[in-house]
């Protein structure tokens, strides 16, 4: 299987530089250890790192494919990212969402000019593939795609540029596109640094898979237990092949740790993180003994917390 | 009276570049007008733009003055900024705070290694001047000082670099150090842009003063009514002289508008802003008809919202 290379990520960086935010590394001066930097990808347009991959995938299309348009299936941040990136490039976009998706996310996706099609949950991937074939649309998958992995990897390139002597990079893992890309960039640029994947203990299928040396599937119902709703997917063969190469270690965090990390990020870092975006901070705060010491970057992957849920966590 | 110049601000930029965060401009893609960029100074160490001035003032001291130490009086972000900047430069710091200051801010200031002295409210400035004379400490005032104004101005320099064709810059005004510095930078680098000061209607002494052409003093009790506790100060002769030169217009916002802007910043921009930091966004959202059209930067000055207050606003 052909893996994404540092050259692919460098090429992606050129494509996304005018549209994605060059997020700074934020040293957390309240932390007594003094070794925590946050990479606030929640500050990207649409509130998540997902714009990096979406921009890269759409920018790489030829003119004919752009004219026909793109299609994506997602109930979350990927839907908005593809809609936004398509709008920026003037490319028509269709987004297939499960009909249980929060209204606020559906409306936000529509506001970026996409045609939104709602289908019963579980059917959205199939419907997207069917429509892609019917209408000649290019499918932009959420992670199982070299251009997506390379795009997400640009966040890793920036970490390496801003903190070349980084010791530890903490990345959340769900479908694995982000960790695959960031890990590939860090391996190439900061070979001494450890790349550590973080999962909720309730959706720790990747920790399980890496331990067993092969993809282990956890039932959807099990993965759905975590509050971190962006971390309920599982890797594809392509992303898992990357993870085996570039992830040094996994850490799993509890639901209580995730909630506390959301509070700490709001109060001390002044960032609104969704639970999925807070797992890396939870790992730093509550699993120090499992982690190598030294300069640590925690990637805050997104900030699309449901307002009521977020207010509830803050008050809790 | 000698005003701070763009050269002073350029010199300050060199001094603060390794310690203050180079905050990005964040285009707000959810905004239907598509003309709002946020400058998230709440992401600075200690959560406010204040570190820029504090670093610049301390960096400018000679070795003898550094060895003796610095002193500041403040119940708010300036206290933590001076404590943090002094710690970074290895300079002893004394901070005089009113004994009604929130415990969380007192502890944060102490955590940066400062000696914290609590005195009855209203006496903290006097006590600081007394201690400065007794111990030979250099007083670092919150705004009435050229080095502080120049330091705060570095935020304006960054706006001009990142968005050279900016049309409107919205800056909160309290003591006026930030607006004086940012306005001076914008005048020099983007002479076509309008610099617009924002105040709570309940503490609109600067709007009043600029209208009347002289400093008008509002009673402390009146200014204390606003929820924006960082905007209850009033300019000095020095900062007001700058404001007369560089502020094109004032906008005042209501308490409800401030609260709604805090909510919008959290939900759409994924930023935790204190009420004072949200007034510029409130002006953009609710006073469009008073503002010139075009590319607008709203400076989000700080993020040290009291956790309970912030949770209450989000839930409200």
UniProtKB/TrEMBL annotation, chains A, B:
It is an enzyme of class 4 (lyase). Gene3D superfamilies: 3.40.50.1100. Keywords: Lyase, Pyridoxal phosphate. Pfam families: PALP. It catalyses: L-threonine = 2-oxobutanoate + NH4(+). Residues 22-302 form the Tryptophan synthase beta chain-like PALP domain. One of its GO terms (molecular function) is L-serine ammonia-lyase activity. CDD domains: Thr-dehyd. Its cofactor is pyridoxal 5'-phosphate. One of its GO terms (biological process) is L-threonine catabolic process. Its EC number is 4.3.1.19. Catalyzes the anaerobic formation of alpha-ketobutyrate and ammonia from threonine in a two-step reaction. The first step involved a dehydration of threonine and a production of enamine intermediates (aminocrotonate), which tautomerizes to its imine form (iminobutyrate). Both intermediates are unstable and short-lived. The second step is the nonenzymatic hydrolysis of the enamine/imine intermediates to form 2-ketobutyrate and free ammonia. In the low water environment of the cell, the second step is accelerated by RidA. Belongs to the serine/threonine dehydratase family. This is threonine ammonia-lyase. It comes from Amycolatopsis rifamycinica.
């Amino acid at each position: 299987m052909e893996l994404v290379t540092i050259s692919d990520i460098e090429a992606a960086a050129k494509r996304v530089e005018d549209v994605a935010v060059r997020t700074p590394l934020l040293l957390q001066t309240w932390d007594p250890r003094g070794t925590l930097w946050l990479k606030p990808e929640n500050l990207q347009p649409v509130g998540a790192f997902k714009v990096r991959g979406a921009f890269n995938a759409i920018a790489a299309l030829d003119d004919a494919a752009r004219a026909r348009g793109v299609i994506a299936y997602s109930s979350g941040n990927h839907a908005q990212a593809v809609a936004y990136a398509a709008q920026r490039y003037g490319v028509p976009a269709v987004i297939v969402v499960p009909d249980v998706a929060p209204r606020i996310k559906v409306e936000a996706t529509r506001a970026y000019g996409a045609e939104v099609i709602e289908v019963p949950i579980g059917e959205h991937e199939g419907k997207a593939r069917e429509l892609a074939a019917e209408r000649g649309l290019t499918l932009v998958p959420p992670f199982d795609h070299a251009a997506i992995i390379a795009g997400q990897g640009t966040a890793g390139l920036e970490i390496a540029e801003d903190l070349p002597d980084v010791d530890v990079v903490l990345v959340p893992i769900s479908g694995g596109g982000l960790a695959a890309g960031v890990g590939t960039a860090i391996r190439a640029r900061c070979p001494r640094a450890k790349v550590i994947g973080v999962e909720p203990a309730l959706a720790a299928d990747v920790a399980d898979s890496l331990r067993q040396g092969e993809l282990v599937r956890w039932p959807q119902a099990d993965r759905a237990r975590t509050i971190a709703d962006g971390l309920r997917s599982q890797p594809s063969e392509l992303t898992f092949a990357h993870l085996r190469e570039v992830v040094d270690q996994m850490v799993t965090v509890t639901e209580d740790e995730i909630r506390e990390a959301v509070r700490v990020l709001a109060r001390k870092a002044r960032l609104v993180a969704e639970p999925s975006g807070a797992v890396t901070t939870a790992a730093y705060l509550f699993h120090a003994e499992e982690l190598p010491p030294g300069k640590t970057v925690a990637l805050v992957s997104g900030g699309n917390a449901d307002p009521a849920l977020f207010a509830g966590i803050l008050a809790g």
